[in-house]
Amino acid sequence: MPSRRLTFYFFIFEKIEPSLKGKISLEEVLGRRKSIRKFSEKEITLKDFSQLLWACYGKNIYGKRTVPSAGATYPLEIFVVVRNVESLKPGLYHYDSKNHSIKLVKAGNFSNELCSFCLNQDFVKKAAFNIIIAAEFERTTAYYGKRGEMYVLLEAGHAAQNVYLEATALNLGCVAVGAFDELKVKKFFELKPHPLYILSIGSL
Fold first, then answer.
1. Cβ atoms of 170 and 48 closer than 8 Å
2. pTM of the predicted structure, to 2 decimals
3. pLDDT digits 0-9 by tens, 166-176
4. Greatest CA span in the chain, whole angstroms?
5. Whether 167 contacts 201, CB under 8 Å
6. Measured between alpha carbons, how far is 60 from 165 in angstroms, rounded to an integer?
7. Interval 67-103: pLDDT, tens
8. Per-residue three-class SS string for 165-180
9. How many other C-beta atoms lie within 10 A of the C-beta of residue 53?
10. d(Cα 16, Cα 22) in Å, to the nearest integer?
11. What is the topology classification, in CATH, of domain 4-16+28-203?
12. CA–CA separation, 188 vs 25, rounded Å?
């Protein structure tokens, strides 16, 4: 199936720009942040979906990413396994942080497969969507050698924490998944970058 590019649009095709002001303070978000493994079947709005991807690895007001990156090498690639998001078909999407857009890579509901790769942790298949944070290590190691590997892992952690905090601010559930078979994820979804981290997100 040929891939198609989607941008974050309302039904009236008004572009959804990331919000730079929240309803609660950073201190409140930090105080309330926790891992949530029980999700309802309520779909995630396209606006909240857009906001979470921007928080993960979008562009800030300086034209940089929302996370620090060693030497601005930006080794991360963000993929999303969508199950229950407003107006989006289930499938694997790639997030283009430069243009704040997504591209459908592979259509289909892959929640059960992803759950099996995550050691059958049930919340993975019940999440509205799962973010896969992957990395092209050579973008950073080309500049910093072996030590660049650590910088990439740190960057993935920064991105994951952003998702946690944004999900909390939006009153959504989020849990990070470190226990998964990255080789199976990489092979099944035919990913070039190496999967490092998965975040399951759903409505409360």
1. yes
2. 0.93
3. 999 999 999 99
4. 49
5. yes
6. 16
7. 999 999 999 999 999 999 999 999 999 999 989 999 9
8. HHHHHCCEEEEEECCC
9. 25
10. 15
11. NADH Oxidase (3.40.109)
12. 40
